[in-house]
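Lecture 7 notes: from sequence to structure.

We start with a single chain of 117 residues. Read the sequence below before looking at the structure.
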Amino acid sequence: VHLVESGGGLVQPGGSLRLACVGSGFSFDSYGMFWYRQSPGKKREELGWINPTGRAHTLYVDSVKDRFTISRDNAKNTVFLQMNELKPEDTARYYCNIDSTPLRDYWGQGTQVTVSS
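Now the structure, written as tokens:
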């Protein structure tokens, strides 16, 4: 099982980024997927979830609900996190995770997002 996140970078406040997470080694289209983020000195924060088909998705964190969107492309084994109107407090390392008790121990290296002018 492998998860590889990408798409992070340095962006100015108000900018946008689209993160991607490619999964392999498991039946990607059979599992829901989570996005998390972690800032230095803070606990990993669960941002949101998308179901296996992509037809249902939700964001748990109030501060991102109006700015972030989760989607997926099962043909490419990829889940996305579209982030708009980025703020300095969005600075963190972003991770995806599999919605499965046996598989939740697998993590990728994450992708760093830094929002700064």
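The mean pLDDT is 96. Keep this in mind for problem set 3.
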